[in-house]
Design goal:
Blueprint: E1 38-46, E2 55-62, E3 65-70, E4 79-82, E5 87-90, E6 92-94, H1 110-113, E7 117-122, H2 138-147, E8 153-156, E9 158-159, H3 160-168, H4 178-193, E10 198-202, H5 213-225, E11 229-233, H6 241-255, E12 259-261, H7 275-288, E13 292-296, E14 302-304, H8 318-328, E15 334-339, H9 350-356, H10 361-375, E16 379-383, H11 388-396, E17 400-402, H12 414-429, H13 435-442, H14 444-450, E18 466-469, E19 490-495, E20 498-502, E21 505-506
Parallel strand pairs: 1-4, 1-5, 6-7, 7-8, 9-10, 10-11, 11-12, 12-13, 13-17
Antiparallel strand pairs: 1-2, 2-3, 5-18, 14-16, 15-16, 18-19, 19-20, 20-21
Length: 523
């Protein structure tokens, strides 16, 4: 870290704002190096998050809040960080994250901080991680976080799948009754009043796979009453993706709620190249007045239960199995990432495992799924069947934010590499996005899509979540073969004005805050 009292380097100043009085609560000091009531970051190339071209400027931070963008001289007790011409951006917001699953055990996750993430949004795919077992409520998760804060901020969506599991228990392969829907609605109201950002569904997964559209509409109406959003892992990302997207639009229309398509993709060989048609459909919905958005990760592979390859969930239907492994994802593209009781399976493709077991891939897949269902085993696979051109097309859509859909020390590289990969590969190497636009998709756009009003911009009065990085050297290193490699090129990360990442090392600061929806009905 470069400290100085005076820096003679001339700046081409963009904005020069008067210093404001400090605002916001000062976070408790954790260690002298990381925590300070006032920081001045000098000589930065500032990307403010709006998508505008950068300006050379200093940033002044007081009590966790940005109080000025311009040229500033150090005052007594100011801490100075010389950015030395590196890019300074708002902290990256991960709008669909599973980093919370291990957050209480690893509160300063290198997998997230190493790629510039300062805020994670959880409760996605309709499921909420339990800070304690079983899940009690979002407010309970918030209280656990507040007792043991992390280095990053945490927000939540209200989890439809979790509600359905609690209310319907094992009898979930049907539509909910009016009484059951009312119970889910009460849970949703409780969590919306606690500050949840909206309602999340995972309609491709049990138990929500068996919900009818009207069930989701009725719950989305409740979220809309609170000014919340709707975020959906749609019902199909392959065989019936068109119908699944239409369902999202119907829910948005009927519930009058902003709707986001999570980790948008076309995960089936026959529909590769159809992203322009999907974008046209979404643009027409927006012209109609629907607030439709999406998020995406920059990888050709997903991670989910292998069961999704059999949409009807009939694991005795050989014809369906043959279709899945010929038309949706080939045996060589499906790698086992989890299978209870069989550690030797991990890391092998269905094709490799079938040869080892002297069987064919379809028979193997059906046998594994039947066994997992019978013995209630956890199973997950990584399927690499997403087209690169579709990734580029979806990524360039102005309303698509960048997300990881990943976790801490994830077996999928997205958990460790997403944001760095976009900046290295899709900005620097492939020129898919300009740097300023990529940063917008990581900052102000997800903040806007989520309804977060005080983050995502380098702007006076906004929370001082900041990322300093070198656009020329930032790089992801996680691969499908070796996912546990952290990204490089992030020089420093501040969360709520405190330094949490210092040139590849986490500090002792734990300034993460709970981010609640600002227009809760109880406010």
């Amino acid at each position: 870290m470069k400290f100085s009292k005076n820096n003679p380097k001339a700046l081409i100043a963009g904005l020069c704002l008067l210093l404001l009085s400090s605002c916001g609560e000062q976070n408790e000091s954790v260690d002298e190096k990381a925590s300070s009531s006032t920081w001045i970051i000098k000589n930065a190339v500032v990307y403010d998050g709006s998508g505008a071209e950068p300006v050379n400027a200093d940033i002044r931070i007081e009590n966790g809040v940005i109080t000025g963008v311009g040229i500033f001289d150090a005052q007594n007790n100011d801490k100075i960080w010389d950015a030395d011409g590196l890019a300074l951006a708002p902290g990256f917001i991960d709008p669909h994250s599973h980093h919370d699953t291990k957050l209480m055990k690893k509160p300063a996750p290198e997998s997230a901080l190493g790629q510039g993430i300062t805020t994670i949004v959880s409760g996605m795919d309709g499921g909420a991680s339990t800070f304690g077992d079983p899940f009690v409520s979002i407010e309970n998760n918030f209280s656990v976080f507040q007792e043991s804060p992390a280095a990053i901020n945490l927000a939540y969506f209200a989890p439809h799948d979790t509600y359905r599991e609690i209310v319907m228990e094992d009898d979930f392969k049907r539509a909910a009754t009016a009484e059951e829907l009312d119970q889910m609605g009460q849970m949703l109201r409780r969590d919306m009043e606690a500050g949840a950002l909206g309602l999340s569904t995972g309609l491709e997964y049990e138990p929500s796979l068996y919900s009818i559209t009207q069930e989701v509409i009725e719950l989305a109406k409740i979220a809309a009453e609170y000014g919340g959003k709707y975020s959906s892992h749609i019902r199909s990302e392959d065989i019936k993706v068109t119908e699944a997207i239409d369902e999202v639009l119907t829910i948005a229309r009927e519930a009058m709620i902003p709707a986001n398509i999570s980790h948008i993709k076309l995960a089936m060989y026959a529909i590769h190249g159809n992203a322009p048609d999907v974008i046209e459909k979404l643009n027409k919905a927006r012209e109609e007045g629907l607030d439709i958005t999406a998020d995406i990760y920059p990888y050709d592979g997903w991670k989910a239960p292998m069961a999704i390859l059999m949409p009807a969930r009939d694991y005795t239907d050989r014809a369906a199995g043959e279709y899945a492994l010929s038309s949706i994802a080939s045996p060589a593209s499906v790698t086992i990432s989890d299978y209870d009781g069989e550690p030797s399976y991990i890391g092998k493709t269905l094709a490799e495992l079938a040869i080892e077991k002297n069987t064919d891939p379809v028979s193997l897949m059906m046998e594994m799924l039947q066994r997992a269902e019978r013995d209630d085993l956890n199973e997950r696979v990584i399927g690499r069947n997403i087209g690169e051109e579709d990734i580029k097309t979806f990524m360039k859509w102005p309303y698509t934010a960048i997300t990881t859909d990943g976790g801490i020390d994830d077996s999928h590289p997205r958990g460790q590499g997403t944001f760095a990969r976009v900046l290295a590969s899709y900005v620097r190497d492939k020129n898919v996005l300009p740097l300023s636009e990529a940063i917008r998709k990581m900052t102000s756009l997800p903040a806007r899509n989520l309804g977060i009003t005080d983050r995502g911009m380098i702007k006076q009065g906004f929370a001082a979540d900041l990322v300093l990085f070198d656009p020329d050297t930032i790089q992801d290193h996680a691969t499908f073969e070796n996912s546990l490699q952290y990204s490089s090129g992030i020089d420093a990360v501040w969360v709520n004005g405190e330094l949490v990442w210092d040139k590849g090392t986490v500090t002792a600061a734990r300034p993460g805050q709970i981010i609640r929806r600002h227009n809760s009905m109880n406010e």
